[in-house]
Amino acid sequence: MQPTILFFDSGLGGLSVYKEVKALLPDCHYLYCLDNAGFPYSEKPEEVIIDRTLKICQKINRTFPLDLIVIACNTASTVVLPSLREHLAIPIVGTVPAIKPAAKISESKHIGLLATKGTIKRTYVNNLIKDYASDCNVEKLGSTVLVEIAEKKLRNGEVDLLQLGSELEQWKGIDDLDTVVLGCTHFPLIKDEIKQFLPQVNYFIDSGKAIALRVQNLLKNVNIKEKQNQNIENLVFYTKNSQHEAQFENALYQLGFKTMSVINVI
Ligand code: DGL
């Protein structure tokens, strides 16, 4: 029997993490939930994000007994992990900005954290910087617009480069910025476009591969739950019906998902 793994994000950004996990563990049973009714999480109050994430994960777990959850969202992971671990007795893997490897690889010791407006403010992230990048000068850039640009790219393939470039304006003149942490799961999906505006940057680091290895390791010690009449199709859930879902159905089907359905959560 294959473990059932839920990926959770506010939108389609979590697919950047899902792709890495699926590449390493192709045969697991995958569920993906996007909280499109709450999108974007970037500037939402922490309590709202905690409440929504917990309710959604619990609801899915009641119907599809889960073996592991990946919170494929930095904005949520920096606040929800304690509460999820308190309420759900399964491994919960969070996605947090890859500050540690970035500080290690940077030669100039001048690095950038590109994340949502919420993530760059979090105590969790400041502690990561204190613990692992104390020898670096760390620039922080929080953007909701970039999240929306990435989400749109997944839906219809369009990227507004003018808007993207102006979001990155403040880093353009920083010549020794050699490493950028893509601290939002949406950003690996627009990495090529981001690169065009930051030619001085040698390394763009995200957490996807590290998460895939972490999931692989944790699964070694998981007692996979018995599932009766298990539907082994990979499924997508979202929290609000809108015309956008029809637009990105194709992207999801190409990634191996079969059926999409709405869940009423709140
Ligand atoms: N993909 C999410 C992250 O990693 C956030 C997107 C949003 O702001 O909703 O932070």
Q: What is the count of DSSP helices, taking H or I runs of 4+ residues?
A: 11
Beta-strand percentage?
15-25%
CATH class of the largest domain: Alpha Beta
CATH architectural arrangement of the largest domain: 3-Layer(aba) Sandwich
Unreliable segments (pLDDT under 50, ≥5 consecutive)?
none
Radius of gyration: 18 Å
Can you characterise this structure?
This protein is of the alpha/beta class and 266 residues long. It has two domains: 4-95 and 209-262, Rossmann fold (3-Layer(aba) Sandwich), CATH 3.40.50; 99-206, Rossmann fold. Helix content is 43%, strand content 17%. The protein is built from eleven helices and ten strands. The chain has helices at 15-24, 46-63, 74-87, 99-105, 117-121, 123-132, 145-156, 161-167, 191-197, 208-219, 243-254; strands at 4-9, 29-34, 68-71, 92-94, 110-115, 137-142, 179-182, 203-205, 235-238, 259-262. A six-stranded parallel beta sheet has the order 4-3-1-2-9-10, sandwiched between helices. A four-stranded parallel beta sheet has the order 6-5-7-8. α9 links the parallel β7 and β8. α2 (46-63) packs across α3 (74-87). The longest helix is centred in the first third of the chain and has 18 residues, at 46-63. The radius of gyration is 18 Å and the shape is globular. The chain starts with a strand and ends with a strand. The chain binds D-glutamic acid (DGL). D-glutamic acid is lined by residues 9-11, 13, 39-42, 73-75, 116, 119, 147, 184-186.
